[in-house]
Amino acid sequence: MSTFAQLTRLRTELARVSPHLGGAVRSYQALTGCLGWPVAAAPVQAGAPVNGAPPALVLQSTHQALAPYRAGAAMAAQLPGSVVLGREGDDYSMFLASPCVQKATNHYLTTRELPAPATVCTD
Question: What angle do CA 71, 72, 76 make, to 5 degrees?
Fold first, then answer.
């Protein structure tokens, strides 16, 4: 993106795909600061594995603006045995908004049992 017209089209598209936020997602502000930047974004990759940590439950919305779904998978990959619990949506308040996430998280915190890999809550 290198022109104001392109930015305007992006904002219109963000408002269309996220009408409850009116396109006012934080990535919109981040993108405006990089208008015309000539370097492509680097793909999300897992860092070095963390040794000795127990498997973790990683909560990740499927469409977060600043934390793409694959970032949750990259984090889980650093913690052997960890699982990403996805929630269909674009919010950061999964635990507050989703009974499915609440149930899986509370179960993990009391038993240390993880949900099945690739589980996605849709509520």
Answer: 115
What predicted TM-score, i.e. pTM, was given to this entire model?
0.64
Residue with the two structure tokens 């963000």: 14
Structure tokens at 43: 């793909």
- DSSP label of 46: -
Could you tell me if 85 and 105 are in contact, meaning their C-beta atoms sit under 8 angstroms apart? yes
Rg (CA), the chain: 17
- Tokens encoding 9: 């089209």
d(CA 81, CA 73): 12
> Going residue by residue through the chain (123 aa), what tens digit of pLDDT does each one get?
567 788 788 778 877 777 766 655 555 555 555 556 666 656 556 678 888 889 999 999 888 766 778 888 888 999 999 999 999 887 777 888 899 999 999 999 999 999 999 999 998
The answer to whether residues 31 and 8 touch, using CB atoms and an 8 Å cutoff, is no
